[in-house]
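RECORD TYPE: inverse folding
INPUT: C-alpha cells
STRUCTURE:
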C-alpha cells in the first residue's frame, strides 16, 4: 500500500515557493536591469503639448520627425484628423526669446554663446518672431520681437562686452513677460549661461512661475563645470524643455542647430468640432506611438492641466549598468532556467510515493539493504538540496541562539502549518529579500524599498499569528461541548482514556486533532495528563489548562469526574458568554478604530484619482515624503492605542 509522503509534500511546496520567487526575478530582471546608465534622459518619441477644444479644435505635438500618420480617437471613437502642419507654417505665431549670459565670469564662453545663438537665428523660419536679451550686469532687452533675422543676427554678433554679475532670474522673468498670448509649443526661451545667478533681485521661484504662466518651453545651455539645480528645474517645470551642459566651447557652439531642430519639430493637427461632444478622453497615435490624456470642452489644456494617461517608465538601478541589454536578458534566462529546474524538482518531490503499512514495518527485517534505503529516503526531498539544507541549518542555528526557534515552532504548531521552524524562517528570509527586490525594481527609490520591505517583514508573521489566533479561538469555543461529551462517556461507563478517544473521533478539528494527538502520545507511553498539559501549552489555552488541572485534582483527592467536568464546562460557557458581551460592548470602538485607520487611505486614493498632481507632492517632494512618513507612524501609534483600549482580557 502506498501513500503520498506528507513530509515530501511539505518540502516540495517550499521548494516550489522558492521557484516562484526565482521565476518572478527572471521576469523582472531583463526589464529592470536593461536601463540607461547615462545621466541624460531620452525624450519620448512624441509629446503632447496642448489640446485646444474651443471653436476650431486642434492639438499641438512635438515629434522629432515629421509625422506621417496621425490618428485621433476621442472616447474610443476614431475621428478625422487633419494633416500635420509645422507650427511655424501655421496660423499660430511662434515666439522665441534668446537670453545670453554676458557676465564677467562667462567671458570665456561668450564667443561660443554668440556662435550658437547666431546659428539658431540663421536657421529660423521667416515667420518666427525672435527677441534678444542679455543678463550680464543687468537684465537688458537688446531687440524686441521681430522676424528680421539678419538684423537679429547682427545684434547677437555685437554682444562683445562682458561685465557685471549674472542676473539670470531677472532676465528670464522680464523677457517672458514680454510674450503676447503665448501658445504652448509656440513660446520658447533659449538660455545660454556659464554662471549661476548671483545678482538678481528676483528669485528662482518667480522665474519658474513666469515660465509656467507663459506656457513656455525652456532650452537651457550651460557652459562650464558649475551648474545649478535651480537651472535644471527651469527646464523640468517648463513645457517639454531640455537642459544640456557641454564640456567645451566648440561643442557648446554646435548646440544652435540642435535647438533649432527641436523648436522646429512642433506640429499642429486639427480635428472636427463635433468630435468634442463624444467625451473628454483623447488618444493620439503618431506612427505607432500612442499618447493619451483627458481634456475639458471649450477650453485649452496644457502642462499640468492635461492630466496625461501614460505608463511610467522603468527605474534606473545605480551601479548595475553592466547588466543592461544582452547581459540583462542573459541574467533573466539563467534565473528562468533555475526556476524551471526548481519547479520540476519540487513537483517530483510532491508527487513521489513512499511505502507504508505492514510492508514498511517488516522491511527492516526482510530486506538487508533496508537501512541504506531508509537513509537515502531521509536524504530525499527538501534536505536533498545541499544549498537549501545548509540555509535551513544556518537559520535554525541563528534562531536557536536568539531563543526564537522554540517560539517559532510553537506558533507554527498552533497555526497547524506543516513546516519545520527552520524551513519557515528560511522561507520568511526569502520573502523579505524578495519584497525588498520588488520594492527597488518595480516601485523604485527609498520609499518603494521601505514600503515593500516593511510589507515583507510584517505580513508573514501577521498571517501566521492570525491563523494561530483563529484556530485557538475555535479550540476554546469547542471546549465546553468537548467536556460535556467527555462527561457523558464517563457516565456511560467508559474509562477516561476511552472517553477521550471516543470524543476525538466525534468532534471536529482543531479539538479533534488535538485529542487524537493526546491519545496517540498516551498509547506510546506518555501519561495521559502530561499529554493533555502539553496540548494546553501548545494551544496556549488557559481554559484547557484549567480543565486538565481539575482532572489532576480529581485523581489526587477523588470524586465524581463527570460532575466535575460538567461544572468546568458550565464555567467556561459563562466565560464565553461574558466574552461575547464584552465584544458587543466594544464593537463600536473597534469599528471606530477601523474607520479612522482606513479613512486617510481612502481619502488619499480619492484625491489621487481626482487630482494626481496635487497628491503626488507627497511622494516627490522631500518635505512631502517626511510628512507622509510622520503621518503613517502617528496613525499606527493611534491605531495601536485604540486597540489597547478596546482589548479587554477576560
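DESIGNED SEQUENCE:
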Amino acid at each position: 500500500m502506498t501513500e503520498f509522503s506528507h513530509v515530501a509534500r511539505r518540502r516540495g511546496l517550499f521548494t516550489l515557493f522558492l521557484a516562484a520567487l526565482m521565476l518572478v526575478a527572471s521576469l523582472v530582471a531583463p526589464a529592470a536591469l536593461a536601463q540607461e546608465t547615462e545621466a541624460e534622459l531620452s525624450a519620448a518619441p512624441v509629446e503632447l503639448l496642448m489640446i485646444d477644444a474651443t471653436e476650431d479644435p486642434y492639438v499641438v505635438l512635438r515629434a522629432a520627425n515629421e509625422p506621417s500618420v496621425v490618428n485621433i480617437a476621442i472616447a474610443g471613437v476614431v475621428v478625422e484628423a487633419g494633416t500635420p502642419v509645422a507650427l511655424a507654417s501655421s496660423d499660430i505665431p511662434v515666439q522665441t526669446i534668446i537670453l545670453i549670459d554676458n557676465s564677467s565670469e562667462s567671458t570665456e564662453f561668450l564667443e561660443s554663446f554668440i556662435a550658437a545663438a547666431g546659428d539658431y537665428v540663421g536657421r529660423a523660419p521667416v515667420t518666427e518672431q525672435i527677441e534678444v536679451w542679455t543678463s550680464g550686469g543687468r537684465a537688458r532687452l537688446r531687440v524686441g520681437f521681430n522676424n528680421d533675422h539678419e538684423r537679429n543676427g547682427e545684434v547677437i554678433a555685437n554682444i562683445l562686452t562682458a561685465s557685471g554679475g549674472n542676473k539670470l532670474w531677472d532676465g528670464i522673468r522680464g523677457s517672458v513677460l514680454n510674450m503676447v498670448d503665448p501658445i504652448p509649443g509656440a513660446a520658447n526661451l533659449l538660455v545660454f549661461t556659464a554662471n549661476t545667478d548671483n545678482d538678481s533681485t528676483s528669485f528662482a521661484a518667480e522665474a519658474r512661475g513666469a515660465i509656467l504662466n507663459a506656457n513656455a518651453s525652456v532650452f537651457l545651455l550651460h557652459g562650464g563645470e558649475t551648474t545649478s539645480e535651480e537651472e535644471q528645474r527651469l527646464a523640468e517645470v517648463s513645457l517639454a524643455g531640455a537642459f544640456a551642459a557641454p564640456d567645451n566651447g566648440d561643442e557648446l557652439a554646435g548646440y544652435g542647430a540642435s535647438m533649432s531642430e527641436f523648436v522646429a519639430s512642433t506640429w499642429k493637427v486639427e480635428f472636427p468640432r463635433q468630435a468634442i461632444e463624444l467625451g473628454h478622453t483623447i488618444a493620439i497615435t503618431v506612427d505607432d506611438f500612442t499618447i493619451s490624456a483627458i481634456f475639458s470642452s471649450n477650453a485649452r489644456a496644457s502642462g499640468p492641466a492635461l492630466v496625461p494617461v501614460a505608463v511610467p517608465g522603468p527605474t534606473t538601478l545605480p551601479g548595475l549598468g553592466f547588466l543592461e541589454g544582452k547581459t540583462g536578458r542573459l541574467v533573466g534566462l539563467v534565473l528562468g532556467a533555475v526556476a524551471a529546474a526548481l519547479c520540476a524538482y519540487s513537483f517530483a518531490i510532491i508527487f513521489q510515493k513512499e511505502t507504508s503499512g505492514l510492508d514498511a514495518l517488516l522491511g527492516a527485517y526482510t530486506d538487508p539493504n533496508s537501512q541504506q534505503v531508509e537513509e537515502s529516503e531521509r536524504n530525499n526531498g527538501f534536505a536533498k538540496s545541499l544549498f537549501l539544507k545548509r540555509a535551513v541549518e544556518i537559520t535554525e542555528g541563528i534562531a536557536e541562539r536568539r531563543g526564537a526557534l522554540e517560539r517559532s515552532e510553537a506558533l507554527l504548531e498552533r497555526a497547524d502549518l506543516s513546516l519545520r521552524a527552520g524551513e519557515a524562517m528560511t522561507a520568511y528570509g526569502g520573502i523579505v529579500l524578495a519584497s525588498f527586490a520588488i520594492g527597488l525594481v518595480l516601485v523604485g527609490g527609498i520609499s518603494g524599498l521601505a514600503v515593500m520591505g516593511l510589507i515583507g517583514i510584517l505580513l508573514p508573521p501577521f498571517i501566521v499569528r492570525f491563523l494561530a489566533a483563529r484556530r485557538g479561538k475555535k479550540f476554546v469555543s469547542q471546549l465546553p461541548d468537548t467536556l460535556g461529551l467527555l462527561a457523558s462517556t464517563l457516565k456511560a461507563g467508559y474509562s477516561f482514556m476511552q472517553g477521550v478517544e471516543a470524543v476525538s473521533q466525534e468532534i471536529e478539528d482543531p479539538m479533534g486533532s488535538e485529542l487524537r494527538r493526546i491519545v496517540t502520545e498516551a498509547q506510546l507511553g506518555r501519561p495521559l495528563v502530561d499529554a493533555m498539559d502539553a496540548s494546553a501549552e501548545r494551544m496556549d489555552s488557559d481554559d484547557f489548562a484549567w480543565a486538565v488541572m481539575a482532572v489532576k485534582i480529581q485523581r489526587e483527592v477523588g470524586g465524581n469526574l463527570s460532575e466535575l467536568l460538567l461544572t468546568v464546562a458550565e464555567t467556561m460557557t459563562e466565560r464565553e458568554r461574558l466574552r461575547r458581551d464584552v465584544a458587543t460592548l466594544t464593537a463600536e470602538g473597534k469599528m471606530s478604530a477601523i474607520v479612522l485607520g482606513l479613512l486617510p487611505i481612502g481619502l488619499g486614493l480619492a484625491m489621487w484619482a481626482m487630482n494626481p498632481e496635487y497628491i503626488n507632492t507627497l511622494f516627490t517632494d522631500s518635505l512631502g515624503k517626511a510628512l507622509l512618513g510622520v503621518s503613517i507612524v502617528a496613525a499606527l501609534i493611534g491605531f495601536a492605542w485604540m486597540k489597547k483600549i478596546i482589548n479587554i482580557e477576560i
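NOTES: The chain has five domains: 1-34+323-384, 46-82+271-309, 94-121+139-258, 396-580, 586-646.
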